[in-house]
Amino acid sequence: MSGRTSRSASRADPDTGTATEAESTPDVPPDSGAQALGLERVMGFIASFVAPITLITSLLFYFGYVSSREYFRYFGVDVDLLGLSPREFVMRSPGALFVPVMILLLLAAALSLGHRVLRRRLRAAGAPRQHRVVTVIAVAGAALLLAGLSLAFLFAVLGSWPFYPFVTPLILAVGAGLAAYAASIARTLSGAREGRSLVVLLVLVLVAGTFWTTATVAQWWGLGQARALAADFSTLPAVVLDTQERLSPGNNAISLQQLPANDPVQGEPATSTKYHYRYFGLRLLVFGGGRLYLVPDNWSPDASTIVVPYDDSVRLRFRFAPDINPPR
């Protein structure tokens, strides 16, 4: 008997009524090339990490925190002093993540298409060509991993390079991705069961590198937003601040007016007031932790953020925003 199994079926002869054996037809062997080259399994492994809502929320919180920390640090404020809630950090994250997420989604679509094309070509290719393709991908991934590790160990020398926190994790992520892809293809083509742990570890390096790169982009976004705001503080609410004690704003854009002992109100007799100083030229940057964080109307290198408690020790007025078409 040959290596192929045959299947026979009996049928009745319409003339004699006896059963005759039909012509046997060989089973079609399954196409071994129809097996996926492992990318689907790797993507499923990644999806098992990012699927939980709690993890997604945690990532949004982290990137919102990173961008907010860089944003307020530009104005000399430690974000931890503001007492912002996790929800507020999550609400601040979409702006920082929009560009990285769009790039990652487009890149994932391109890689999926490239994987399908490569899989079809590898099916039609012979074993030597398959081996060469896998070797090229593996060598490229290993080279990038070595380059990324070298940059990581040279932090003391290259840490001041502005693009260091972006280039280093990006190279590590790309190198780990190529190496994991090559290892996955090699396992599928050879039918071996070994090597899965290597693929998993490389995928984890890919995820960590992507996380690090995205965090760097979030930092840059926060810094860029702070610089854009500093160029035009007119978008912030204008504030008139009355205090009991004299402050030292340290900026010429902030003007001081000393209030009289009695604070007259139109139509009413003058009454004594506990507020003695009035400051103009202030903008409300943020409110947090029971404190007001105020900045001058115009940014300057010698400017600083004024912090005052939001209680009876100060009196606050918000000025109307300028309107080129005011109501009649």
UniProtKB/TrEMBL annotation:
It comes from the Bacteria. Keywords: Membrane, Transmembrane, Transmembrane helix. The chain crosses the membrane at residues 42-65, 95-113, 133-157, 163-186, 198-221. Residues 1-33 are annotated as: Disordered. This is Uncharacterized protein.
